[in-house]
Amino acid sequence: MSAEAPTAPEISTTIATSDELAAERAHLVTSRAALKAMRERAEQLFSVGDQVAGDAYTAEQLGRQMAQRIKELSDDPAVPLFFGKLTMGAERWHIGRRHVSDAVGEPLVLDWRAPMSRRFYQASVRDPQEVAVRRRFGWSPAGAGGTTALTSFEDEHLDSGQELGTDSAILTAEIERPRVGPMRDIVATIQPEQDELVRADLEDTICVQGAPGTGKTAVGLHRAAYLVYLHRERLRRSGVMIIGPNRAFLHYISAVLPALGELEVSQSTVAELLDHLPVRAEDGVAAATLKHDARMAQVLHRALWARIARPAGPITVSDGSYRWRVDEGVLRRVVDEVRREQPPYALGRERVRARVVGLLQRQSEARRGDSPPDSWLRKMGKVKAVADLLDHCWPAVTPQQLLADLYTDAEALSRAADGLLSPDEQELLHWPKPPRSLRTAPWTAADAVLADEIAGLLDRPAGFGHIVVDEAQDLSPMQARALARRSGHGSLTILGDLAQGTTPWAARDWRDMLGHLGRPDGRIVPLSTGFRVPAAVVALANRLLPALDVAVPPARSLRRDGSLEVTESADVVAAARTALTREGSVGVIAADAAVPDVLDALHAAGLEPSELDGDGRLTVVPATMVKGLEYDHVIVLEPAAIVAAEPRGLHRLYVALTRAVTSLIVLHTEPLPEPLRV
Ligand SMILES: Nc1ncnc2c1ncn2[C@@H]1O[C@H](COP(=O)(O)OP(=O)(O)OP(=O)(O)O)[C@@H](O)[C@H]1O
Q: Does the structure's ipTM exceed the value 0.90?
């Protein structure tokens, strides 16, 4: 974190005396030396470990863990080693991003996730938790050499009734600092309501509803880091997954967890996770909406289980000079029994095979008087009579095959969809002509979600210990089910804002979404303090809320400093040029179709705009890609065009208007959308 030297807050705080500041700097020097020593010890162990590890696997595991440990112990001079301090009676605890201890194991810096550190975030005058003084440190922004210096501190004497809360100058400086580059961690200034969520138990599924900029993404990422710290071994095995809306967003947040020392958390979009087929076509809105509807889960379940048929006759199997026979009635009982057990479909097929082989085995044992070897059992499982039986009564099927059959065979679809989908809806699913091959079929993105549902009926997918889902309001019921399947016995952190839902299937109610995510009792928690969007800009965006048809609590912005300008002009070049004279990043948000022209105009003016994912100061962002991102200065072009571009265009505009950290300029030549007119 870098923060400017704090200005004096209204509530009196201890003025940093030069002696005290010198003592804190000395502690920093000691801590840095101790961290270096820890790293050297780890490196030494690493080289010794090379020689003592037993087998190759253990050596590799050990090597990986040690290399990871050394990385965790690296000291980035651009990142403050500690940001806070607690005085509790005679004890002093510095709080930082990682644990540092001296040669005899005495802690010099506590990891922000350690139980003791919780008091740094939670102690208050009303509930001081034995904390007499909470100190926050101010650091200079990392300069040219990438080094940050300890410049100041700010104390709250909780023991004499002083509490700054969100009036902390250091918090204010952190919130107001210019944003360039990827998202940064907020460990130094996590607020009590956020901390409650970050430290929720691993077993807890929580769903955070928060207006734009209330720190949902930040909370989700810090919760992941917290859980990995507390349950390292367990979560290393099962894994933690962060799901975001698109690659640009994942790129934007990608630096946060590594900065917190966590390198092993995976990130993915839903589409990347459900990569079952080559997407070659696009559905119309009606077909896509239908495919994302929860009813499809029932249709697919029926279609799959309708493949199971009753055995139509006995089987006989030649085995050397013997012939074994299993009657039709017995076979029927086997199939019925397995069916009643409701295993995953593919497992059911293997169960039927194993039971039929078991019946053959019993006959062989009765005749031969001893148990056949395993190789005999394997052979019997594959003999033609058994294979034919399985292919008839429990046929193997792939997700693609089942879907293609439903899309081409109107009768099969009508049986599976009976009472669930209307004839018109069934027609929406129908392929007019059968594809030449499954590989070249006109698969759509929604088909990948359906294929995943089928894959989940065939076999249980491997799950994660914890999943963080950002922008969850945009998930369809079918996508939510895909995540539910992958969270197995684990838990979820669900982050979103119903007002920012832009997909045709966007959630209108969190309880419904929790149901689809398999956690109907998950805790729904609001976050209401906005850290990004200046109050004047929030006020403008809030005018859209009544038209968005969702019940969400309004946000309270912490930022009084920003500016808002609504101008009748199309001169994006002039607006961008002015914005670039100020400090921080500039984002130009336009309807997707207008982006090429905007880029051309800015290029022609020599302003060197970058497209999304670029690292320049000026970025042109299509409106459909801006979710979750933020820029110091935002220029929103032609709101009416953004609204007109899609059915939930007003929601999209709400997202676009809430990306600004410092200033928002709205440029328009067409009339503004009705709710924005004065
Ligand atoms: N406690 C905090 N201290 C300092 N900055 C914070 C704090 N909480 C959030 N922020 C900052 O506020 C900005 C918005 O946070 P974040 O992106 O997590 O919000 P969000 O609720 O996910 O927003 P959106 O709904 O628009 O995606 C970020 O720059 C983040 O670093």
A: yes
